[in-house]
Amino acid sequence: MNKKRAFTITEVMIAVLVVAACLSPIFFIFSRGAAGTQQTRDEVLAYTYATELLDYAQSRPFDSPFLAAGMRDANALDVTQADGSTFVLKADERFERKLSVIIPSVPTTVPFTYKVLIAEVAWKTAQVKRSIAMSCMTYRNR
Predict the structure, then answer these.
(1) What's CA 106's distance to the chain center, in Å?
(2) 59: left (phi over 0), alpha (psi -120 to 50) or beta
(3) Which of 8, 45, 54, 92 has the smallest count of CB within 10 Å of its CB?
(4) β-sheet bridge partners, residue 55
(5) Cα–Cα distances in angstroms (integers) from residue 23 to residues 17, 27, 29, 49, in the given order
(6) pLDDT digits (tens, 9 = 90+) for 57-108
């Protein structure tokens, strides 16, 4: 006599649950990896926006109203091209750019006047507020 052998539905369901329990940590690792990639992308964008702001500020004349002492929002920058046409350079809505201009006091024996430029970029990633700051200096003869 030939005995037929097969799995019961209960055994199949238990096997599926065991496989799912073993695979769930792998999916958790993948999701954490994706979140890390998004954080890295946002940080790279923030440094790019800060560099762009500092480059823009350094391209302005030393006495430009844009480089007056104080802090200002700099999410949209008016750029004038060589042919005289203008366009607005905007950052992604998730990012907030600010420019701080500090005029340090230097002795009169120093032949230059300086301005310290600090670009700050803030954004929110996964409900966590993050920010970076970059600085540079511009100068002219007295």
Answers:
(1) 33
(2) alpha
(3) 8
(4) none
(5) 10, 7, 10, 40
(6) 999 999 999 999 999 999 999 888 889 899 998 989 999 999 999 999 999 8
Residue 48 host element (H or E): helix 9-59
**How is the chain split into domains, by residue range?**
10-141
Dist. CA 100–CA 102, nearest whole Å:
6
How far is 134 from 103, CA to CA, in rounded Å?
16
Identify which of 108, 101, 114 has the alpha carbon closest to the alpha carbon of residue 56.
Answer: 101
Residue 60 is given by DSSP the state S
Mean pLDDT of the chain: 90
Q: Given pLDDT bands bounded at 50, 70 and 90, which one contains residue 7?
A: confident
What pLDDT does 1 receive? 60
Which residue from 137, 70, 76, 58 is spatially nearest to 99, judged by alpha carbons? 70
Cβ neighbours of residue 113 closer than 8 Å, sequence gap 6 or more: 62, 103, 106, 139, 140, 141, 142
pTM beyond 0.70, yes or no = yes
